User: Which sequence fits this backbone?
């Protein structure tokens, strides 16, 4: 298990060196009781394998799905989840708070 955000960034470099297509999701803003701090990362490869966390399990599934699209089309995305969002109950942020995540392909 990776223990630091630097470990995840090193893994991104290693995965790219192996020829894997990858995306990096980064928490860029939080409000309220978001479970991960700004700067937290989730690394995803084209097969859906991942390392790290951007929400402690609340929104990872949706972020991975978007990351696979980012790997495919190369267009970065900013995702936002929260209790005021229509996806709040589906993704599990019912505890409150909001989170904004930037997803980009790592070339």
Assistant:
């Amino acid at each position: 298990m990776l223990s630091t955000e630097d470990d995840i960034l090193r893994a991104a470099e290693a995965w790219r060196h192996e020829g894997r297509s990858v995306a990096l999701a980064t928490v860029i803003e939080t409000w309220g009781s978001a479970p991960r701090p700004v700067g937290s990362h989730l690394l995803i490869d084209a097969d859906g394998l991942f390392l790290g966390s951007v929400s402690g399990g609340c929104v990872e599934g949706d972020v991975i799905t978007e990351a696979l699209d980012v790997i495919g089309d190369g267009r970065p995305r900013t995702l936002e989840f929260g209790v005021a969002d229509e996806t709040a109950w589906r993704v599990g942020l019912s505890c409150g708070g909001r989170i904004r995540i930037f997803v980009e392909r790592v070339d």
Summary: The CA atoms of residues 24 and 43 lie 5 Å apart.
